[in-house]
């Protein structure tokens, strides 16, 4: 059995072992024996601060061993036990010392760091944390539903949906990496009240309309509507809705007819969905998003029995107008399961959806990714699902990731110059075209490693990567200012900087082969590493620092699995790139006596970076 690749877990385990030996009574005191990373590497790699609380507890109980007169002395006796351990018991810690009031400081053993790099070279991938890669087939407890992207039919996808899409894709990839059976669900808004007016508008504008469901838009009917731009159609319908009370009235009736299965309404509805779907799919294709549509309409026929179930539990209160509501603890507003006109809304659908996900999909973990304004809605949905007993707090985990607003440089909600919401496609086009010109400029300076026909594809990888990374690298709950200049900067914590750093490492590896005859790929492919094992020798300070950073990968995954915030991986990736750039500036790689070991270190770093890009949904490039 190998040591836990998580340095946090492995070093904590050594301290726990030592404390149990030195102070056997400590175990029952419920003190958390955790090690953590030192803020300043000058003082150590890891530290453990357990000596102070442990000293207090033991002295209060009068059970301090004679001779231990201070937290420092207690810390020293822990250190003595660790130092006396053999390598089997303590494969990872060295250079232990006691600092200040009793902090135990330590370093990670060079051999442990070397093993880590060798493992990456041997496996062609960074070592997974223990929590990862488990899971099993269907029927296990590992089904997770991630509800993300979820735009609304007939409305344009906007930057808010972009956030949900980008964060959702990364969350899915990370959960999949951890061995979960992830159901990626696109809960599209295909059943809302907007259809009332859209259907009415279509009926009035295209009276001869008929649609057979082929994606040619309609049957032989001469009045086939040419609705290429659904947003314009939506705007027109909306203004008539706002202007004409009669139009408004019949529109509302359409919603009820649609939900009751009226044939004509359904036909129009289906056509509008088909047109929208094609637009959404274009965005998903560009951004490498995979998500399966299971929209609001899917739950329509499941809602009556849900209402019935709440009714049987005596949890429905009927309002004056006849609306059926469910009140949950700590909320003055109720969930509305049925409106007074008999129609169903957002709440109805979400209650049917949560039941379906738990009972039919057998999910243990549900993740919803929307903007923060929906936090109260999901609190109520979760509370109601617990109240009725579908969800059990101990065996189910429910998460709502409520992300912040995307702002323009003026600090207000991100808009175009004319004040319209920014169309997602335009925004993506802009990122790519800016990237293309920057790559061409580079080529004109003679710095490019790619040919002209690779420019577009490289610009797409970098441009989309930049947009994604700019979002993922921060806590999703915070707002951010959308800025091309900042996200496309070649310096700082951007995808562009990282993609360049990665390509630079690979270009060193390529030169190693071309100019010095050391073929890392061939050595990696051979079981024996070319007669001798790929031996990593860590000596220089910046080699050591890079190898140590590679070891943090497992912890960044663990952290991400805890709160589902991908920025932990971004932080890790950025720190790794900085450690790598310091390494290649401080240590001569090509033509040095340590060349082989150092080329492997470059490759191991590149492999780990690629893994991170992949988890974030960012395409990497080998050359720029
Ligand atoms: N369509 C909604 C919106 O655009 C998001 C749906 C989120 N998922 C859900 N199950 N309510 O805001």
Map the helices and strands.
Blueprint: H1 7-22, E1 35-37, E2 46-48, H2 51-60, H3 71-84, E3 93-99, E4 103-108, H4 110-123, E5 143-147, H5 159-177, E6 181-186, H6 194-205, H7 230-243, H8 245-260, H9 263-286, E7 292-293, H10 303-312, E8 316-318, E9 324-326, E10 335-338, H11 346-360, E11 365-371, H12 375-387, E12 397-403, E13 406-407, H13 424-444, H14 455-472, E14 480-481, H15 484-487, H16 495-516, H17 520-525, H18 541-551, H19 553-563, H20 567-586, H21 595-616
Parallel strand pairs: 5-6, 5-11, 6-7, 11-12, 13-14
Antiparallel strand pairs: 1-2, 2-4, 3-4, 8-9, 9-10
Helix pairs in contact: 1-3, 2-3, 4-18, 4-21, 6-7, 6-8, 7-8, 11-12, 13-14, 16-20, 16-21, 18-20, 18-21, 19-20, 20-21
The structure holds arginine (ARG).
Percentage of β-strand residues = 5-15%
Number of helices: 21
Main CATH class of the largest domain? Alpha Beta
The ligands bound in this entry are: arginine
In CATH, the topology of the largest domain is named: Rossmann fold
Number of domains: 3
Low-confidence stretches: 215-224
Family: Belongs to the class-I aminoacyl-tRNA synthetase family.
Protein name: arginine--tRNA ligase
Catalytic activity: tRNA(Arg) + L-arginine + ATP = L-arginyl-tRNA(Arg) + AMP + diphosphate
EC number: 6.1.1.19
Q: What descriptors fit this protein?
A:
alpha/beta; Rossmann fold; ATP-binding; protein biosynthesis; 624 residues; 3 domains; arginine-tRNA ligase activity; binds arginine; 4-stranded antiparallel beta sheet
């Amino acid at each position: 059995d190998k040591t836990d690749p998580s340095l946090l877990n492995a070093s904590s385990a050594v301290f726990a072992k030592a404390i149990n030996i030195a102070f056997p009574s400590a175990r029952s005191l419920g003190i958390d024996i955790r090690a953590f990373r030192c803020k300043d590497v000058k003082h150590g790699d890891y530290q453990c601060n357990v000596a102070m609380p442990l000293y207090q507890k033991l002295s209060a109980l009068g059970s301090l061993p004679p001779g231990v007169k201070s937290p420092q002395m207690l810390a020293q006796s822990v250190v003595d036990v660790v130092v006396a351990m053999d390598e089997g018991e303590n494969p990872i810690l060295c250079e232990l010392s006691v600092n200040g009031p009793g902090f135990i400081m330590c370093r990670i053993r060079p051999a442990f760091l070397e093993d880590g790099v060798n493992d990456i070279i041997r496996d062609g991938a960074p070592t997974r944390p223990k929590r990862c890669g488990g899971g099993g087939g269907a029927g296990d407890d590992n089904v997770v539903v991630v509800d993300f992207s979820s735009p609304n039919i007939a409305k344009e996808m906007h930057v808010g949906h972009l956030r949900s899409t980008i964060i959702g894709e990364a969350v899915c990839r990370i959960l999949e990496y951890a061995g979960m059976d992830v159901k990626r669900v696109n809960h599209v808004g295909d059943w809302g009240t907007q259809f009332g007016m859209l259907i009415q508008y279509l009926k009035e504008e295209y009276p001869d309309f008929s649609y057979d469901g082929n994606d040619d838009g309609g049957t032989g009917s001469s009045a086939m509507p040419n609705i290429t731009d659904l947003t314009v159609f939506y705007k027109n319908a909306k203004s008539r809705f706002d202007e004409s009370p009669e139009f408004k009235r019949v529109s509302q009736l359409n919603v009820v007819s649609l939900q009751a299965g009226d044939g004509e309404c359904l036909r129009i509805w289906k056509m509008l969905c088909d047109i929208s779907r094609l637009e959404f799919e274009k965005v998903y294709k560009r951004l490498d998003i995979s998500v399966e549509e299971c929209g609001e309409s899917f739950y329509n026929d499941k809602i009556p029995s849900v209402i019935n179930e709440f009714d049987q539990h005596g949890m429905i209160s009927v309002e004056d107008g006849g609306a059926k509501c469910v009140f949950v603890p700590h909320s003055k507003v109720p969930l509305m399961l049925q409106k007074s006109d008999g129609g169903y809304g957002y709440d109805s659908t979400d209650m049917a959806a949560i039941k379906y996900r738990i009972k039919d999909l057998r999910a243990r973990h549900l993740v919803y990714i929307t903007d923060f304004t929906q936090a109260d809605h999901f609190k109520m949905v979760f509370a109601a699902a617990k109240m009725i007993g579908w969800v059990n707090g101990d065996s189910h985990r429910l998460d709502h990731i409520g992300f912040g607003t995307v702002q323009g440089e003026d600090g207000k909600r991100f808009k175009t110059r004319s004040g319209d919401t920014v169309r997602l496609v335009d925004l993506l086009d802009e990122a790519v075209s800016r990237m293309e010109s920057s790559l061409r400029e580079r080529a004109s300076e003679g710095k490019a490693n790619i040919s002209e026909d690779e420019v577009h594809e490289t610009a797409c990888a970098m441009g989309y990567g930049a947009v994604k990374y700019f979002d993922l690298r921060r806590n999703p709950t915070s707002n951010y200012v959308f800025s091309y200049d900042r996200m496309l900067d070649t310096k700082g914590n951007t995808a562009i900087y990282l993609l360049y750093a990665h390509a630079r490492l690979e270009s060193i590896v390529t030169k190693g082969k071309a100019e010095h005859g050391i073929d890392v790929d061939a050595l990696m492919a051979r079981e024996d590493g070319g007669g001798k094992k790929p031996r990593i020798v860590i000596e220089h300070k910046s080699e050591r620092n890079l190898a140590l950073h590679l070891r943090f990968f497992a912890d960044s995954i663990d952290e991400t699995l805890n709160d589902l915030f991908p920025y932990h991986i971004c932080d890790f990736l950025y720190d790794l790139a900085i450690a790598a750039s310091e390494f290649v500036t401080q240590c001569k790689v090509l033509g040095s006596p340590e060349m082989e070991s150092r080329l492997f270190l470059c490759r191991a770093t590149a492999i780990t970076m690629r893994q991170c890009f992949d988890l974030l949904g960012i395409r990497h490039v080998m050359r720029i």
